[in-house]
Amino acid sequence: MPTKHEQILQYIDHLPIGTKISVRQIAKDLDVSEGTAYRAIKEAEVQGYVSTIERVGTVRIEKKQKENIERLTFAEVVNIVDGHVLGGREGLHKTLSKFVIGAMKLEAMMRYIDAGSLLIVGNRDQAHKLSLQHGAAVLITGGFDTSDEVKQLADKLALPIISSSYDTFTVASMINRAIYDRLIKKEIMMVEDILKPLSETAVLHPSDTVATWHEYTNRYGETRFAVADDQMRVVGIVTSKDIIGHGPQVTIDKVMSRNPIVTSSRVSVASSAHLMVWEGIELLPVVDHHKKLVGVLSRQDVIKALQYIQKQPQTGETFPNLIMSNFREMKEGEQTVYIGEVTPQMTNHLGTIASGIITTVMVEAACNVLREHRRGDMVPENVTVYFLKPVQMESEIVVRPKLLDISRRFGKVEVAVYHEEQLVGQAMITAQIIER
């Protein structure tokens, strides 16, 4: 029987998109305490099908799939630009397909606006009205209001009119950044994307016997299974090593390995791969917020996923990508070196290269050297910085990584950084190698 917390989550999940949700109303409808209702609503927000908006309240929104994670709802736009809603609250759950900056005449502006757009404009009531009539929402910059006629039209069409105190350039930059961050998230493969759900695998129970393990092995072609109790909480793992020497009638609770390592569906595949290699395990049970089993992850699943990621085009750059884009790669005999300039974005408030930036450069250079010798993902295990000296903005630095040791699973690299032939930084980096 589901707990009260689970009942509330199911109730919220079945509410129509756009429904306003209150702690008091849910507590009353489901006869639970307000504390229980509050915790469940927060959990629904974490899971992505509820959004809380200042001066509006909590709204049931459409849960985003991986394919359209980069598309923002108007409710999320309100939070991003610290805005407030003047009208059209019923449409906050809708997603925007693009945004248009209204810095042109009305006739020209309307050529770019269609259903699902967001017009970013100042206090131009006529532009607000025409945008709504074309099926687009409106974001008014500079903290301006709009006419009552426009607000009524927004309510009628369920298209939000949002006001923000920021200027047009700032709100456009904020929305762009939010979309860009989501593109990066979209590229990062999560455990939930590749886990084997319970419908596709077998789960043993403590009261099952070794004979059941043999039956499942023949049926599913696997030798490792998660063990869960009647509430589907993970209590163990059983493998072929555990079964050796035990008769068919021995129960699983007598042979299983207890207190297994588990992971969450919202953990990245790379992080889980690192955990499996580090702990030397082949099967990782995946649990939800309540520690209940939702699926399993095998080392084979991880390897296939990492191979798939390697073949995909990259669209969103992370900070290490952006930092290393300032460096060019060159060969000095057998050694690879990286040469680049200290740009203003790489400096601290004193105008010298920030310690975090130079450390990132050294780690990336070390991982690149390891990739020359091993195919796979490099996960830094230990970074020991011996010393750093200040390097001024617009100075050229040369990064020289030197491979000290490499094995099937680990690599060790010493990295030296020079400016005008003077040593300005040195570190030792140890990385784990996750083979694809």
TrEMBL record:
Q: Does the keyword Iron-sulfur apply?
A: no
Boundaries of each CBS domain copy? 256-312
Alphabetically list the UniProt keywords.
Answer: CBS domain
Read off the InterPro entries from this record: CBS_dom, CBS_dom_sf, Diverse_CBS-Domain, DRTGG, HotDog_dom_sf, Ser_kin/Pase_Hpr-like_N_sf, Thioestr_dom, WH-like_DNA-bd_sf
A Pfam family the protein falls into: CBS
- Name used for this protein in its record: Transcriptional regulator
Species this protein is from: Brevibacillus fulvus
Upper classification of the source organism reads: Bacteria, Bacillati, Bacillota, Bacilli, Bacillales
